[in-house]
Amino acid sequence: MTSLLSAVTAASVVLHALILVYVLARRKLVRTGYLWLSLTVLFSLLSAAAFFLPQEALIAGRFGRSAAIMFALAAMVIAFGALVITDMRRQSPERWRRLWLALGVLWFAGLVVTGFLSETISIAQGEWLVQAFATRNPFSLFALAGLVVMSAALLAVAFYSFYIALLPEVANRSLFWIITIAVILIGVVLAISGSTTLTLLGRVILLVGVLGALYAQVSHRVFDIRSSLSLGMRTALLVTLTALIVFGVLQVVSRAPVQQDAEGNLLLALLALAVAIVYVPVRQIADILVQPLLRGSSISPTVAARKYSQKVSGAVELDQLVKMATETLNESLRVRRSGLMLVNDTGGEDGKIELIIIVGGAFNETTRGYIAKNGSVYRQLAVEQSPLSQFDLEFSPQHANLDAQERQFFANLQMSAFAPIIVENTLIGILACGPKLNDAPFYARDLELLATMANQTGVALRNARLVADLRHLNRSMQSLNRGLEEANEQLERLDSVKTEFVTIASHELRTPLAQIRGYTDIVDALNQQGMLNQDQTSGLVSNLRKAAERMEELITAMLDVSQLDVNAMDLRFTQTTPEAVVRMAIEPLTDVIKQRKLTLSARGLRGLPAIEADLQRLVQAFRNVVVNAIKFTPDGGRIDINASLQPAEKPGDVDHILIAISDTGVGVARENLELIFQKFYRAYDPGLHSTGAYKFMGAGPGLGLTIAKGVIEGHGGRIWVESPGHNLQTCPGSTFYILLPIQPPEHARRVLPFDGEAEKTSA
Questions:
Q1: How far does Cα 660 stand from its chain's mean position?
Q2: Hey, how many other C-beta atoms are within 10 angstroms of the C-beta on 373?
Q3: pTM score > 0.90 for this model?
Q4: CATH number of 2-223
């Protein structure tokens, strides 16, 4: 038996060496656990090679052959555990692996310490486990205790990974690792048992465990353990049934006097025929009973594909197609959920295509994602036109270099399989399926069936998208037509406004011009007759000055508006206060307010922080708004000015000053709330026009509010009006709101200082 153990151990060393050479030579085929797999094979090889150390040899004067084997096996268990954790905990392997290695280092260090604390560690090969319990050797006891703890920890990690696995393929892989861990640990225990027979068996089992670890690393999709167990149970049941029938037949034959003649042979033939007649239906019944219990009812690809084609071909609308496709997929493939991805290839320079995910069933929502054209997912779906499983995305070496964002996008979908929808050799969509109801993995036949259904979806999806695009285009055309109609109406109104402006402007210009010409003629006539005196001259000059000032105001307003059109109104910002701006705006209007018997009040201006503004322009803007309120408020009305500080809404923003100018005037119609700020616009019949600058309804050419809007927006502010409506009898009034930042933004219109100012600044 000892010679047999030596031969088996030698063969194990050779096979381990061949496996190690294979791993080192084919490292590209080995997955992320390349280093740990190599160390596992190496330490397993060393544990087998240590068997050939002389029985009397001591390492460091204390450790014998059995201790050397134990050290090698302990290192192998640590490396193997790191390999398992790296493979199963793929999302965060570093943290789990560090904990495992820390536990392994403590165990290995404890072995060394207890070895030096023991009297002599030269345990005979045939007394290892027995000696550990008989003599209570610290080294042996610590080795066994550490092996139990490490085994429990590794199995706990494996079972936890199996429990949290979302994909059945991942759960199957975890189950495979659990079996491999059990094989390795059983092999370790048998190898250090001390019994020649058990040690021989342990060497064989260890080799099987190492081959299992190599298989798991080379092949990302291990064999289906649950299916294999089901097949084994089914085969065992059928073999048992067959054995019972054969046993019964043999019992009948043994007790019946059958002669070796023609009559006896005929009897045996009839008996065989009867057994066959009974066996065939019994086996069929057994298959019917056993198959649902072990594998679940099978899916007929032909029936599923035909049913899917009938449902999908009748869908015209995109929503209807998605609903039909997902419901039929859920029923035919017996999956928990399914969905449809629309491919939107915009031809962008970033090399990505957009996926619009429409998930049916309980997950009735639409999300978006992107995949790279040069990525492995697009290559498999669009170029190779083959289906893809989520398990392959996570474990296949083909997708090892997949972009992390793209990998996370597919993981968040919680789908199990994807099939491309191809039309005219172009990827237009992706059909997706979630996990099966019985948590079985997606086999190759399932992926082929899904690909067949995806091909049947192509034409229907293209037609549905064409219908959706046509309807979207129709809605866009209708929206554009409505926009054109509104634009035409607005152009007509603006054209009418310009015509009215010409009428009003000519009236506004002719009135002071007529006054100037008239008074000039009077001065000339009186001068020729020698009748001019100082009082007459003063009165005539005063009237001429008023007419000239009126004409100058109109021309200035037109020039200001022209500057606003080309963004040529430059602003010079200085520090001032809102109170000073409002006071300077209303002071020249005091006499007019008294003449019209209006009441004007201002509140909340004191205590407001200083602002940076163009004082002259801002005074002009406020005065235009106040003058507008005066003109459209009947005699005896009221004008209120209220100011308040508006703190910044977000960090980094500046505070604002809000000033509200309310009146009890005729108000503004809702459809004119925006139009009154356009140049030349007048919100009432121009036939009511009056040349009086401040008379009730005595509006000018319609430029004041336009200038006010341009100046305030040039400061980075905003102006708007609110009013219940326009009514000459009830006078609902209106409120103009002016919002100004304390500090103007960078895009505010500024001008450079004059040369002299620049020199002073530099000095």
A1: 44
A2: 15
A3: no
A4: 1.20.1070
